[in-house]
C-alpha cells in the first residue's frame, strides 16, 4: 500500500513539474524557429530573419491597405447598385404608349433614358467622386506595398531591384543618345572634309 502511494506521489510531482500543453507547444515552436535562425548563413534565411521586423511592418501595412480597399470598394459598388436600382425604378414608373405597349424600340429608348439619367446623376455627384478617389488611392497604395516587399526581397537575394534596373536603363538610353550624336557629328565632319578636299 505504501508502495502505491509513493508511485502516486511521484506521478503527481512529475505532472506538476510539466508545463501545460499550450506552453509546451509554443516553446517547441520557438525552439524550432531558433534552430532555423541559427542555421549557417548559406542562403537567404539569415537575411530574411534579420529584417523580420521590417517584413512584419510591411505585411501589416499591406493588410491594412487591403482592408481599406475592401471598404472603399464596398462603398463604390453600393453607389453603383443604388444607381442601377434607381434606373430600374424609373423604367417602371414610365408609361408605355397604349397603341403598342411592347414596342421594342420605344422600350429600348425608355431604358436608355432611365439609365443615362441615373448614372449621369451618380457620376456627377461629390459622393461618387470621393468613393472613386478612395478606391484609386487604395489601389495605388496596394501596388506600392507589394512593390516595396518585392524590392526588399530582391535586395535580400542580392538581385538587382526594379529601381536599380530603371537607373541602368536610363544610363543606357543616355549612352545611345550620345553615340548617335557623335555619329552625326562624325558623318557631318567627314562630309565637310570631302567637300573641302574636292574644292
Could you explain how this protein is built, in words?
The protein has 199 residues and is mainly alpha-helical. The protein has 2 domains: 45-159; 163-192. It is 85% helix and 0% strand. It is built from 7 helices and no strands. The protein has helices at 2-17, 21-37, 45-50, 52-93, 104-123, 126-156, 162-198. α4 crosses α5 (104-123) and α4 packs antiparallel against α6 (126-156). The longest helix is centred in the middle third of the chain and has 42 residues, at 52-93. It is flat and about 90 Å long. Mean pLDDT is 77; it is low at 14-24.
Describe the structure in brief.
The chain is mainly alpha-helical and 199 residues long. The protein is built from seven helices and no strands.
> How does the overall form come out from the CA principal axes?
flat
Decide which structural class fits the backbone: mainly alpha
Strand content: under 5%
Average of per-residue pLDDT values: 77
Head-to-tail CA distance between termini: 132 Å
Largest sheet: none
Q: How many domains make up the coordinates?
A: 2
Counting DSSP H or I runs of 4 or more residues, the number of helices is: 7
Can you give keywords for this protein?
single chain, 199 residues, mainly alpha, 2 domains, 0% strand
Amino acid at each position: 500500500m505504501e508502495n502505491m502511494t509513493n508511485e502516486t506521489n511521484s506521478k503527481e510531482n512529475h505532472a506538476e513539474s510539466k508545463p501545460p500543453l499550450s506552453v509546451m507547444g509554443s516553446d517547441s515552436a520557438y525552439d524550432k524557429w531558433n534552430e532555423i535562425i541559427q542555421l549557417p548563413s548559406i542562403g537567404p534565411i539569415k537575411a530574411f530573419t534579420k529584417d523580420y521586423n521590417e517584413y512584419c511592418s510591411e505585411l501589416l501595412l499591406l493588410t491594412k491597405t487591403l482592408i481599406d480597399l475592401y471598404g472603399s470598394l464596398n462603398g463604390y459598388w453600393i453607389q453603383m447598385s443604388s444607381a442601377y436600382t434607381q434606373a430600374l425604378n424609373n423604367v417602371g414608373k414610365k408609361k408605355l404608349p397604349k397603341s403598342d405597349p411592347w414596342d421594342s424600340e420605344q422600350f429600348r429608348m425608355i431604358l436608355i433614358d432611365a439609365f443615362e439619367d441615373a448614372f449621369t446623376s451618380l457620376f456627377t455627384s461629390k459622393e461618387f467622386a470621393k468613393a472613386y478617389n478612395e478606391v484609386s488611392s487604395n489601389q495605388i497604395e496596394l501596388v506600392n506595398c507589394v512593390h516595396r516587399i518585392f524590392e526588399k526581397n530582391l535586395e535580400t537575394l542580392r538581385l538587382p531591384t526594379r529601381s536599380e534596373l530603371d537607373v541602368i536603363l536610363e544610363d543606357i538610353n543616355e549612352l545611345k543618345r550620345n553615340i548617335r550624336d557623335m555619329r552625326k557629328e562624325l558623318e557631318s565632319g567627314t562630309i565637310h572634309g570631302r567637300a573641302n578636299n574636292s574644292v
